[in-house]
Amino acid sequence: MSDPAQPAEFPAMSELDQLPDRDAEETAEWQASLDAVIRHAGPDRAVYLLRRVHEYAARSGVALPGLLSSDYINTIPASSQPVFPGDLAMESRITALNRWNAAAMVTRGSRLGLGGHISTYASAAWLYEVGFQHFFKGKDGGGTSRSSGAESGGGSGDQLYLQGHASPGIYARVFLEGRLREEQLDGFRREADGHGLPSYPHPRRLPWLWEFPTVSMGLGPLAAVYQARFNRYLHDRGIKDTSRSRVWAFLGDGEVDEPESTAALELAAREGLDNLTFVVNCNLQRLDGPVRSNSKIVQELEARFRGAGWHVVKTLWGEAWDSVLRQDTDGSLVRRLGEIPDAQLQTYAAREAAYIRKHFFVGDELSHLAAGLSDAQLTDLFANSRGGHEPFLETERE
Ligand SMILES: Cc1ncc(C[n+]2csc(CCOP(=O)(O)OP(=O)(O)O)c2C)c(N)n1
Ligand SMILES: [Mg+2]
Fold this sequence. Notes:
Blueprint: H1 24-41, H2 43-59, H3 88-111, H4 119-122, H5 125-135, E1 159-161, H6 167-176, H7 182-186, H8 219-236, E2 247-252, H9 259-262, H10 265-270, E3 276-281, E4 285-286, E5 289-290, H11 297-307, H12 320-326, H13 332-339, H14 342-350, H15 353-359, H16 364-371, H17 375-383
Parallel strand pairs: 1-2, 2-3
Antiparallel strand pairs: 4-5
Helix pairs in contact: 1-2, 3-5, 3-6, 14-17, 15-17
The structure holds thiamine diphosphate and magnesium ion (MG).
Residues 252-254, 283, 285-286, 291 line the site of magnesium ion.
């Protein structure tokens, strides 16, 4: 065993190919080109060029290892954003009512010392509403095909592994559907008389509502992978048509620290389980504080999921950022977003414009960019236009 006090020197990744340099002069020329770009056009330009060369190499059939993380911006650019297919006004209202009722349940429970999670659903309400309205398929014959509108007949529907601590929001939604009464909501976490609602998804206590238990943290995502694999097995053996079933796991960013949450990621990729979606709500918080203080949980997770062979789509910023990012022609804003640790991002969300101007928009390019923004715009960017939980109609775009 090596002595942890004397860590071994590891070679840099670039040296791992162990090939002799067959043309040192040519290598030096390439390096000199890069030096020149860094000197004359800056490191952001160098990153840009290397990324493009990397992409171009991959397209030309040059087998390079993939990059594990992308910039700290939305994966889907604003220009490629699809049109929201629903009734935005109606869905906004449903989401607001659910948030309110969920908050009321937890607050009433808390007055009695019962506890409950108020921010889990509050930060994920839109993710669930969009799922329920536009994606999840029920068990009634496997749901309706979104593409054809035809009944599939005999399918098994989707399986939802919902984040356990979001249960008040799910109860609130079921209440709006008329399937729970107000007295039952008031019985949240009060099951002693046999009529209350369990704290978390509990298929034995409330079998008509909950299909899978997802607390303790980590059980949902792990079980979801095996569910997706089992669905494939059933289908491949001709036992059940699960070809249209999708398994969804909703989880928190803190939850991903549970070893169970990521234990089967490689298995999912190896088995090619494209019938499985994880939705990780990165609100940067967990009960006891920020999920990561001095680094970035989203970037860390992106690298981990990509490394395991998953496709990753990040939704980080709302529409207010689009026009600001368009002005960032030299990449300094994107670089700055990438270097701000999570705890500092949370601070910006709570601070006034002068603080944001002084501490975030540092350097000539960035302070110039900030000069074109009002104080209200600046605070809005960090306090309200984060997280990507922002449905947006194509017609609203300027
Ligand atoms: C295995 C396990 N450990 C601890 C807890 C207690 N606990 C409940 S919620 C929570 C934090 C959850 O944070 P996150 O996953 O980020 O959820 P969110 O921010 O959406 O509430 C903890 C530690 C638990 N439920 N399960
Ligand atoms: Mg969290």
